[in-house]
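TEACHING EXERCISE
Course module: macromolecular assemblies
Task: Read the component lines below, then compare them to the predicted structure of the full complex.
Student: A.B.
Group: 4
Components provided:
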Amino acid sequence: MQATVNGERKDLPDGLTVAGLLRHLGVRAERVAVERNGAVVKRARHDEEQLAPGDVLEIVTFVGGG
Amino acid sequence: MSDELSLGEHRFTSRLVVGTGKYKDFPTMQKAILASGTQMVTVAVRRLDLSAKGEKSLLHWIPKECVLLPNTAGCFTAEEAVRTLRLARELEIGGARPLVKLEVLSDQKTLLPDGEETLRAAKMLIAEGFTVLPYCSDDPVLCRKLEDAGCVAVMPLGAPIGSGLGLRNPYSLQMILEQAKVPVIVDAGVGTASDCAVCMELGVSGLLVNTAISGAQDPVAMATAMKLATEAGRLAWRAGRIPRKLYGSASSPLTGVI
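Instructor-supplied answer key:
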């Protein structure tokens, strides 16, 4: 299935959850926040939230800033 | 003698808030944070670099005792700012009503804040339970509106972000200070340590500094200088300065002169 992750089109395995996506990308979940189609996916829901083809996902973290 | 800065649920003995942007490397940033004595640092929310695996993140280098103050840098509308801080809240910044720095800019060149969008965003964020510290212009009317909306402090600029021009309009700031019932924190414009002292001597409650420290030739030394200047300025304000007089006033007795 295709989805957009941080602005890039990606081919992803079908049937991924948010937690599965983070594992697939090699991202440690504890210091990122995930937004799916404009809405925050709470950490407690990472294991349940199913992705769908065409999803727009943002994975963010803290960086230096003033 | 206790002299604490109170912001929402948080109490601080340091009145210097520092940014974490534009350091040449993380170890220098960490040393500067420690030298500044700060208890709160600003951070930005950005896309994770999916190609940078295994690198230690920013948070690894921030002392654990520092409160994180997520900002909305790069946002030009209220909606963008709210979206950014909803994500920040997921990043375990802690507390039921997390402290956030609201910053909604008007254009890329001046980086001046957009008061209308800032006020709109502040109301939206407060309704969602955030504790809002708004970066704003040094406009007493806007500062009053932000305070009335429920912001726990106002953060007028001293000069444009990163300009290092120091406090450009002390009279506006004095008007803001006179009316404000919440802490006033000067955010942006500080260039060197004396700027910190000047602001603190006017009675502001705190300062937020990034570029003037990270961009200094020796950021750790500048962080130390600003810590001292902030403390000195605060003490001088509490001490109460003498009134300015046009003519001289002798320090030694005029009687008994030989």
